[in-house]
Amino acid sequence: MSDDEADRDEDGATGSNDGGELEDVLSTVQSRVDPDADERARLRAVAATLTERAEDAATDLVAGADVLQVGSSARGTWISGDRDIDVFVRFPPELDRETLAEYGLEVGHATVPDGHEEYAEHPYVKGEVEGFDVDVVPCFRLESATEIRSAVDRTPFHNRYLEERLDEALAADVRLAKQFLKGIGVYGSDLRTQGFSGYLTELLVVEYGGFRSLLEAAADWHPPVEIDPEDHGADISFGDPLVVIDPTDPERNVAAVCAMENVARLQHYAREFRTAPSVEFFEPREPTPLTEAALREHLSDRGTTPVAVRFETPELVDDQLYPQLRKSLAGIVTGLEDCGFDVLRAQTFAAETAVVLAELSVAERPAIERHLGPPIHVRAHAEGFYDAYADDPEVYGPFVDGDRYVAERAREWTTARAFLESDAVFDVGLGAHVETALEDGYDVLVGEETAALLPEFDRQLGAYFDPQP
Amino acid sequence: MSDDEADRDEDGATGSNDGGELEDVLSTVQSRVDPDADERARLRAVAATLTERAEDAATDLVAGADVLQVGSSARGTWISGDRDIDVFVRFPPELDRETLAEYGLEVGHATVPDGHEEYAEHPYVKGEVEGFDVDVVPCFRLESATEIRSAVDRTPFHNRYLEERLDEALAADVRLAKQFLKGIGVYGSDLRTQGFSGYLTELLVVEYGGFRSLLEAAADWHPPVEIDPEDHGADISFGDPLVVIDPTDPERNVAAVCAMENVARLQHYAREFRTAPSVEFFEPREPTPLTEAALREHLSDRGTTPVAVRFETPELVDDQLYPQLRKSLAGIVTGLEDCGFDVLRAQTFAAETAVVLAELSVAERPAIERHLGPPIHVRAHAEGFYDAYADDPEVYGPFVDGDRYVAERAREWTTARAFLESDAVFDVGLGAHVETALEDGYDVLVGEETAALLPEFDRQLGAYFDPQP
In which residues is ATP bound (chains A, B) (predicted)? Predict the structure, then answer.
């Protein structure tokens, strides 16, 4: 294959491994991720049964309904062991939403007799059939993806687009790509991961003509990367580091959720893998749980002061919880830094409890702070500032620095703990449910007190002190 | 007088004191600064004698030479007690510089028999005559100030310009203005003070038509303030907060030396004086000497950590010393801040020893620092960074933050003392003679060790801990 021959980047800095070792690794991975004939046959049989059941139920309800198997199991891109079957039931667009929902559930229960109802944009039925996890989802049957009324209506168009382009070889490469992205921790478009969705992965493999050439390209990406498979001529600026215009909808960036860090990680690991191929890239890293002794040693080596705000985890699905945790993390970091408590690194974790952890370079400040006043030539403001401080015996100044007054006045918070334990923490821009959780009470842990986060977060802290790209 | 009637600024924020109190204060000051008839007569007599002696000596040497009394004593703008008489000897422009210097000294010695030679741009003779300090300075007699060959050639033009415009009343106001500027600490265009020269003060009083209206105007200045008494139409951007185009030379800003702080101080004290007139504004503040006990109390109240670099004062005139000290101060402050040692305020003093003092909000940093690497898409740099740190057991990371690598590595200096005691202090951009002085050895004082600066700098430190506008 041409794309794993020895090559150099434009700067001549890096050569990839010779193809032999890389191909050996890929065969090993392929043998793990490719479903064998037996698995394929079983899936095909179950899918056929489900489709038949759904078709019978749907056409009983309304003429013009049809049924479509979609997703990776429909396209032969699932990874061996995945047991998801997605059955989409398409109803005529004349139906109103309520009837669609009602019919959808009826068909769902008929298809998956032991199923239960779940609620996304539409309610749908989910359940187990012969060891497979089955979703039966209703949607509208439309002429074009631009007419969609909800996200699920788009799925049949995605499915058709990919089915037309994925042959056996590309499907195999999709499996490699998915496993690679899983291995490096960036697979999944949920809002916790903010990584690469299955559909995005398949589009990238199709676009670049395979897994190896996708890696070769990604290693040299200069974000923002814009990919427009159907040449829609994107006239919309997305502002995302990776833009893949949906072939079925020119206004949608399939990679909108993908965080800049995860694009960068793909670039990093693409280079690393090509330089020194190993199956380890395809195996998600399990962080070593941190012991209390190791925590103390890290803190002593680093000389920093960790502070943690710990509270009961709000009862939310991950797609709601993690954006709120990240918002709260950003707010608390900004709040700390605005008070002069410099943050070296920060992170948020959640399990039974949730934690915003900030590792401080500076955890204490002196009793006074420099307070910069207005330019002296802005007379009314300047006089107001001067008069406010001139007679305060606690204040040094006002004096003149450059063209401004400066006063040295008492600092509100001289320790990070005092700041975090005060009501000021509610003014930093917390996520709404995090704010509610904090109102019910929270702990502030400082320095070695953070050992109280063990063992609940021993793996997260293990990863924190062994940070990887 | 119209300019001290009750008035309001545009924002209506401030009323000035009613004129009576202000006028009472000004009369008191006037009675102190106005030379009485006896003093005037004595000065006139001595000046006449000196002029005659100089004329005789000069015309003996070269036809076309003449003599001019210049400066505040010539214009009646000196403050009572000042005892400076400046005699300028003008030679024809055909003379070469060497002959000018030679003749100048000859005339100088003839005029001031006990005088000694000093060296500015030209050598000149300085000495005491009947209790007056006399300078006899040679210069070229030119048609226009734009033809000047050195700064002293300009003086006769300045003198003529002011003599034509200063009447008795304005001269009295110049004396008030000078004493006010002395009182608030901004009089003098030497490079230690960086304030208002005598010539600048006289121009401002002439321009605004008096001391009271100068204060009224200054209180409302919006720097950059541009004053162009002869409407030269300045086509040069000076970049200074106060620009007074020299009436005798359109390319020169008479206020070029005047620091932004000193312009701001004039604005501040102009407002304060007009609001609450007092003779104190005309009396230079004598800072209370700081005791060791008071120093300790300030440090404990403020919670800061002062650090001082102390060395033998380079043997330089103030006009060379203070710019070098200020440059060294700026360099050391930047050096400290670049290492994470946040500076609250800093100052330099000189006597027998010289000191750069920085008061730190943060005097210690943890063992590690965040080191931001290149964007991951800048492949050659990114790979170089990653390879440099990936296998270093002392380094945490590299990991990915945004689109960049970050490594947490050992910090070079964890205390300000270690930084200041290291050779790194020579890389911060010290003044040349300060650098030489430091090479001969210096002390680093931290925290209460700065008590060793007492009593040498007890007044400077008294002022430091009682900062005024």
Answer: 72, 75, 158, 178, 187
Which of A100-104, A149-153, B434-438, B440-444 has the weakest average pLDDT? A149-153
- Identify the CATH number of the domain defined by range A37-154: 3.30.460.10
CATH architecture of the domain formed by A2-33+166-282: Orthogonal Bundle (1.10)
Which ipTM value was assigned to this complex?
Answer: 0.90
Q: For residue B376, which residues of chain A lie inside 8 Å, CB to CB?
A: 264, 267-268
B377-428 pLDDT per residue, tens: 999 999 999 999 999 999 999 999 999 999 999 999 999 999 999 999 999 9
- Flag whether A72 is marked binding: yes
3-class SS letters over chain A: CHHHCCCECCCCCCECCCHHHHHHHHHHHHHHHCCCHHHHHHHHHHHHHHHHHHHHHHHHHCCCCEEEEECHHHHCCCCCCCCEEEEEEEECCCCCHHHHHHHHHHHHHHHCCCCEEEECCCEEEEEEECCEEEEEEEEECCCCHHHCCCHHHHHHHHHHHHHHHCCHHHHHHHHHHHHHHHHCCCECCCCCCCCECHHHHHHHHHHHCCHHHHHHHHHCCCCCEEECCCCCCCCCCCCCCEEEEECCEEEEECCCCCCHHHHHHHHHHHHHHHHCCCHHHHCCCCCCCCCHHHHHHHHHHHCCEEEEEEEECCCCCHHHHHHHHHHHHHHHHHHHHHCCCCEEEEEEEECCEEEEEEEECCCECCCEEEEEEEECCCHHHHHHHHHHHHCCCCCEEEEEECCEEEEEEECCCCEHHHHHHCHHHHHCCCCHHHHHHHHCCCEEEEHHHHHHHCCCCHHHHHHHCCCCC
Any B CB within 8 A of A219 CB:
yes
pLDDT tens figures, A401-442: 999 999 999 999 999 999 999 999 999 999 999 999 999 999
pLDDT tens-digit series, residues B133-172: 999 999 999 888 778 888 888 888 999 999 999 999 999 9
Residue B263 sits at the chain A interface (C-beta within 8 Å): yes
8 Å CB contact of B408 and A368: no
pLDDT for A235 equals 62
Say yes or no for a CB contact (<8 Å) between A13 and B383. Answer: yes
Task: Give the annotated binding-site residues of B for ATP.
Answer: 72, 75, 158, 178, 187
Chain A contact for B393 (CB, 8 A cutoff): no
Architecture of domain B165-282: Orthogonal Bundle (1.10)
Confirm or deny that A84 is annotated as ligand binding.
Answer: yes
**Within an 8 Å CB–CB cutoff, is residue A28 touching chain B?**
no
Res. B2: pLDDT tops 70:
no
Give the CATH number of domain B37-150; options: 3.40.50.11810, 1.10.3660.10, 3.30.460.10, 2.40.160.20: 3.30.460.10
CATH code 3.90.1150.200 for A292-364+414-464: no
Using an 8 Å CB-CB cutoff, list chain B residues near A388: none
**Residue B18 pLDDT grade (very low, low, confident, very high; cuts 50, 70, 90):** low
